[in-house]
């Protein structure tokens, strides 16, 4: 069941898929939608929204009931339509293909589909222009340049521009051209989503593409310039975070004379840093945190965290945690945790 909040018509509509539960980033994403995780002062989904907005398309964001209020707050100053999937946990989710079908089954326009957890530096103008000239399904590809890395993604084989094979997470990839969660679909192909979901089909959009290429001409568009990050796990999130971080320290942050800030960092409102602490480089410190005699780098610290005599590197700490007398490296700490080592 879906609740749709507005309707408009355009020759093409954009759909940002943001309804997953991001289990590989638990426990952080038990309480936070992955597309709303911070990348500096912005959120992951902000970068996607800003790439699409200049086209003037109607923009639909598909999410779930669990994170409905968070997305409503995010959307307050955005020109988007929210579509809410009536699920609250991983076991209930419809899956990407069925969710896309439910969102688009009444839409008469072509659609530009974007995964809500992808970060890319390149623009979409050439991709959209090429789709408009083809009027055939067009799939965005990026050469990850490494066979082992390609095993994580859907991998395409091209004959010219046409995709002749698309294999989801292959054991032995035949190329390093990865699908990057950006699709342009004509109305006829969009209608084929219904045929696909009526069978016992997998819920990954890559599997839909594999099914589609045996029935239709499907084309690939290779982005050759710029960067792309699939924010699927803590490492890729922190890498994207480092790439997109720009320096910002809120005016009311209290930093004593013995502490040091090494840019780039983002330090939100109400933070207190004292007693020879070192923050940065590449640190996000959420609102209301208290940091004493602690070092933080390559890490994301959410709101109202207390750090005392702690060293935090390449880690993510959720809100309202208290960490004392401890070194954390490559760690994820769930919300409200209290961890202390003896003096």
From TrEMBL:
Entry keyword set: Nucleotidyltransferase, Transferase
The protein's Enzyme Commission number: 2.7.7.24
CDD domains cross-referenced by the UniProt entry: NTP_transferase
UniProt-recorded name of the protein: Glucose-1-phosphate thymidylyltransferase
Signal sequence coordinates: none
Domain named Nucleotidyl transferase: residues: 13-245
A GO MF label: glucose-1-phosphate thymidylyltransferase activity
Sections of the chain in a coiled coil: none
PANTHER family xrefs: GLUCOSE-1-PHOSPHATE THYMIDYLTRANSFERASE, THYMIDYLYLTRANSFERASE
Organism annotation: Geoglobus ahangari
């Amino acid at each position: 069941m879906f609740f749709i909040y507005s309707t408009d018509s355009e020759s093409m509509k954009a759909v940002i898929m943001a309804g997953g539960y991001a289990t590989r980033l638990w426990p952080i994403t038990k309480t936070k939608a992955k597309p709303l995780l911070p990348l500096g002062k912005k959120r992951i989904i902000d970068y996607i929204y800003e790439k699409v907005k200049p086209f003037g398309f109607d923009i639909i964001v598909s999410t779930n009931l669990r994170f409905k209020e968070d997305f409503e707050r995010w959307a307050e100053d955005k020109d988007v339509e929210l579509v809410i999937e009536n699920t609250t946990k991983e076991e209930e989710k419809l899956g990407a293909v069925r969710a896309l079908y439910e969102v688009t089954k009444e839409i008469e326009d072509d659609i530009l589909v974007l995964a809500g957890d992808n970060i890319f530096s390149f623009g979409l103008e050439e991709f959209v222009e090429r789709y408009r000239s083809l009027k055939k399904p067009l799939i965005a590809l990026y050469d990850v340049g490494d066979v082992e890395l390609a095993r994580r993604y859907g991998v395409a084989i091209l004959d010219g521009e046409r995709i002749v094979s698309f294999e989801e997470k292959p054991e032995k990839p035949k190329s390093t051209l990865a699908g990057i969660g950006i699709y342009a679909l004509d109305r006829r192909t969009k209608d084929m989503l219904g045929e696909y979901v009526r069978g016992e089909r997998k819920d990954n959009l890559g599997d839909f593409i594999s099914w589609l290429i045996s029935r239709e001409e499907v084309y690939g568009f290779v982005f050759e310039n710029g960067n792309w990050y699939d924010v699927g796990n803590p490492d890729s999130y922190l890498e994207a975070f480092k790439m997109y971080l720009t320096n910002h320290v809120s005016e009311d942050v209290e930093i004593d004379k013995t502490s040091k800030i090494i840019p780039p960092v983002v330090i939100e409102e109400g933070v207190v840093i004292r007693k020879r602490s070192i923050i940065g480089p590449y640190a996000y410190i959420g609102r209301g945190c208290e940091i004493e005699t602690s070092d933080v780098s390559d890490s994301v610290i959410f709101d109202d965290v207390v750090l005392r005599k702690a060293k935090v590197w390449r880690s993510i700490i959720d809100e309202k945690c208290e960490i004392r007398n401890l070194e954390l490296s490559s760690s994820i700490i769930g919300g409200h945790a209290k961890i202390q080592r003896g003096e």
